[in-house]
Amino acid sequence: MERPLNRDDLLTLLDTATGACRAARAALADDGQFTIWDGDTPAFELATTYRRRRRLTTKQGAQTQALQQTVDTLNDLGQSPIRLGSITSADRTWNYILFLTPDTTKVIACTGVRRRGSEDD
């Protein structure tokens, strides 16, 4: 039986990852909330979803982190199963989506989007 991923485990996984993952790690370390969802989704389906989100966030002018990189990574993985997670910063200004291996032992990709209405004045 799979052991649930706890906060310390997730902080460790995010310690060696890319820029968006480092930002997600900082948000988690600063009392951000996290969720890891049950079940897996084929990478190509997530690539389609996040390609649409990239177009939408670009159109809206939303600030993102590593969104194109994430779409490219998911495209390359084809049918591979992906487990999803999220981290929301304590001040709720940023939301990060994590793309993990099904056994949650590795972060494959991470993207962040600044929530609407949270832009600096």
Explain how this protein is built.
- By secondary structure, the chain is of the alpha+beta class.
- Helices cover 40% and strands 26% of the residues.
- It is built from 4 helices and 6 strands.
- α1 packs antiparallel against α2 (19-29) and α3 (43-60) packs antiparallel against α4 (67-77).
- The termini are far apart.
- The mean pLDDT is 92.
Please mark out the parts with pLDDT under 50 across 5 or more consecutive residues, or reply none. Answer: none
Helix content: 25-40%
How many strands in all?
6
Q: In DSSP terms, counting alpha (H) and pi (I) runs of 4 or more, how many helices?
A: 4
Mean pLDDT score: 92
Structural class: alpha+beta
Q: What sort of overall outline do the alpha carbons produce when their principal axes are compared?
A: globular
Q: Report how far apart the termini are.
A: 48 Å
Topology diagram in text:
Blueprint: H1 7-14, H2 19-29, E1 33-36, E2 41-42, H3 43-60, E3 64-65, H4 67-77, E4 81-88, E5 94-100, E6 107-114
Antiparallel strand pairs: 1-4, 2-4, 3-6, 4-5, 5-6
Helix pairs in contact: 1-2, 3-4
Label this structure with key terms.
121 residues; alpha+beta; six-stranded antiparallel β-sheet; 4 helices; 6 strands; 40% helix; globular
